[in-house]
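User: Can you predict the 3D structure for this chain?
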Amino acid sequence: MVESVRLAIMLEPLAIYLYILGIWQSGLRPKIVSGKLDHALLVFGLSGIVIVGPLGEFLLERLFGPANPVVWILWIGFALLWAIFLEGRAGRRFVVYKVDSRVLLEAIRICLAAESGRFVETIQGFEDREGGITVTIHPHQTLRSGSVQVEGPDADTFRLRLQCALAAHFGSRPAEGHSHVAWGLFAVAWVALVMPMLNLLLHDPRIRTLVREVRRHLFGA
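Assistant: Here is the predicted structure, written as structure tokens:
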């Protein structure tokens, strides 16, 4: 029973996170998400694995020693502080889901062209040398997504303006069907959702007896 509860704590947040990503990837057009929201959902999705998973237990013992209630409280507090620290860095970016890396690059190029020719293309994105603003693009081709980081003077205002320009650009494009990435995320989410329940059922003595009886009737063993 305890092992099944632990497995549920590990996998249920991950299942919810992957299911939300699947929804974003299955929309008719690219989905733009703020960096803070994207980071918060990622932290939630990995929280169970990090806190009670094998890696979490390993780090807990190395940092705080043998597990006990006080150590668990310290470990959870440490994990929350680290997540809050990274949340600040996530505020500098936004993420676009369901988009090819080349499509995202071209869309940003078109949006920045309206900025009076201030931006020049660099290896990692675009730069306004006079204004000191840089737009860095990190594509994730496997997941058909990409993160866009904006830094420089008045970066928050410019980032919001770029998000609105991209939303208008993608909104004018023809609608698309569901992507294979969305179906893959939904499949993994359902597996993660069902595994704790299956584990609980398979460890129930009544279920195990029933399985043995079914196997004996089917295979004579």
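The mean pLDDT is 81. The first helix runs from residue 2 to 25.
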